[in-house]
Specification:
There is one protein chain. This protein is mainly alpha-helical. It has one domain.
């Protein structure tokens, strides 16, 4: 089948499975975090696909989530005295750390870290999890998404009609 249809078939079918995992068997541990999996899945492709894309997604997004967790802790802790500026200052510090960390080759894809930084806000703000309680579910969701990226890529390649030699 043509590559575009192979990718659409692969992603469509696996999206059903990914969503089902988060809605049924993983619902109590990863409540509503399927969207983080989809961000990591997209990050896999955005980062070039293959093992490199999945590695970049997992490492970058996990690092970004850790930076985001610390930013939330700073905003509600040491920076709380800054009032309405506590969260903006914490986010600015986190963004600067992500940029500086890009000097490390595994963290050189800044958008991957930014996706993780943003993703951890969901379980903290929407599920009302403490930052330290949100980090593991966030990282597990990232890993699941990166795996789905890799699997969808392999399945699409397997379904693609190969040109005659």
């Amino acid at each position: 089948m043509p590559a575009l249809f192979a990718l659409a078939t692969s992603v469509g079918l696996l999206a059903v499975l990914d969503t089902w995992l988060f809605v049924v068997p993983l619902a109590t541990f990863l409540p509503g975090l399927v969207w983080i999996s989809f961000i990591a899945w997209g990050c896999h492709f955005h980062s070039g696909g293959g093992v490199k894309g999945s590695t970049t997604a997992v490492v970058g997004m996990s690092f970004g989530a850790l930076v985001g967790m610390v930013a939330v802790m700073l905003a509600s802790g040491p920076l709380a005295g800054a009032g309405n500026f506590a969260a903006p200052i914490a986010v600015g510090l986190g963004a600067a750390v992500i940029c500086l960390a890009s000097a490390v080759s595994l963290l050189s894809t800044i958008p991957a870290s930014v996706y993780g930084f943003a993703a951890i806000a969901g379980p903290i703000l929407l599920a009302n999890l403490a930052p330290e309680k949100a980090i593991i579910p966030t990282i597990v969701s990232v890993i699941i998404g990166a795996i789905f990226g890799l699997v969808s890529e392999h399945l699409a390649n397997a379904l693609t009609k190969k040109a005659a030699a």
